[in-house]
UniProtKB/TrEMBL annotation:
Domain of life: Eukaryota
EC numbers on record: 3.5.4.3
The keyword Hydrolase is assigned to this record: yes
Ranges for domain Amidohydrolase-related: 73-449
Organism for this UniProt entry: Neolecta irregularis (strain DAH-3)
Pathway assigned in UniProt: Purine metabolism; guanine degradation; xanthine from guanine: step 1/1
Purpose: Catalyzes the hydrolytic deamination of guanine, producing xanthine and ammonia.
Catalytic activity entry: guanine + H2O + H(+) = xanthine + NH4(+)
UniProt name for this protein: Probable guanine deaminase
Amino acid sequence: MVTSPLPPKQLFFGRIAYTLSSRELFIHKRAAIGVDGFGIIAFLDDTVSSAEEAAEKYQFQDADVTLLSTSQFLFPGLIDTHIHASQYPNCGIGMDLPLLDWLYKYTFPLESSFSNLEFARDVYTTVVKTTLKHGTTTAAYFATLHLEATNLLSEICWKLGQRAFIGKVHWLSNAKADDQKVCMTTLAPNYYLEKSEEESLSSTRQSIEYIRKIDPQFSRISPIITPRFAPSCTASLLLELGNLAEKECLPIQTHLAENKRETELVKSLYPESSSYTDVYDKANILTKRTILAHAIHLDIEERDLIAKRGSGVSHCPASNCAISSGIARVKWLLEGGVKVGLGTDCSGGYSPSVLDAARQASQVSRLLPDPSKSRLSLAELLFLATLGGAQVCGIADRAGSFEPGKCWDAILVDIGEMDYWDDSSILQKWVFGGDDRHIKKVWVDGKLVHENL
Ligand code: GUN
Ligand code: FE
């Protein structure tokens, strides 16, 4: 039998930064990282003084060596915990309306076009290439309610090498007769709606099987159960989905308490629940691997319930500003023990960049009533963009930081003009002034998936 040789080991030497918690930002000026032939980090060592010394110490003499210049640094790949791949063509468009009107006027017409597979291929290829270029090594994607187009997105993520969670959206009308004015006319256009719970569940099962054929262990691309939000589901569909996630050991993503009118609507649609969060809890939707996008209008009981269930929040500050949703209290969530990561929420948000989401998170954190308590530090912002996101997606054992045993999901940043600045200033300049032009290389699972030289 002929066994194929392992890909070469890789050895990097230079400035290396990462977080290990929201309070711990490490910046090593001169350190070595070794990546084995399986794309796994073998060592990180800041005591060696050269690549040669590291190579000898770890028997990495046969590795491909990259020596970073003084204007470069390595950082863990960025994690987008909430992005609508299908809404990418609308980024920057339609920021004149709040959520429910925005969905009806701009979002559903666009999403309904994903019945056209050529259009879907074009948009999804652009989204994955663009987010990789911006350093997104993991993305949690909402697709649309179309099975074939969702399968295409899975195929494209697989081929282009991104780590991704891909969810076929569930979208039934939960409207009751007396809600029709609020709900049917503004929320559920008949051209973009699943016909029955059975159809909705069956196409999700098929999208799971499709991914299983491509990546049987769901090691890089994984299905994610995606009830759009409570108003687009019935209580029984939510429960079926909670049970399906448990049976298949799958993550879940949905929206929670983004907008005041939406939370009022949920109250009227689910009178038996004590809160919006309780609607999901009653349906077993709040798991350790559930991503709750926005989570703005919560009371303390809801926050504590989310923390108790171990679910995470995707903070989407650009979207929260653009469609006037409000300001999520990130420090308050973190202090309550809730996991938090960042989401671009394209196209509620206008930018596909997680770095931009970090910048916006910083800005809005200063606008809450007591900025001395709510302002996010540099370490917190960088944590949210990487390890925080990995915790929310349930992949902190694999991604989000540079610890031996984790996958080499990383970016090489070159911000230029570094000689004047200390290490912390370099990272601040990147967070507040950087963009995709500064991201020179991107790796996922040890493989180079984007290069901009
Ligand atoms: N709530 C339900 N659907 C959506 C969506 O597509 N975008 C945002 N921002 N919120 C939602
Ligand atoms: Fe969203």
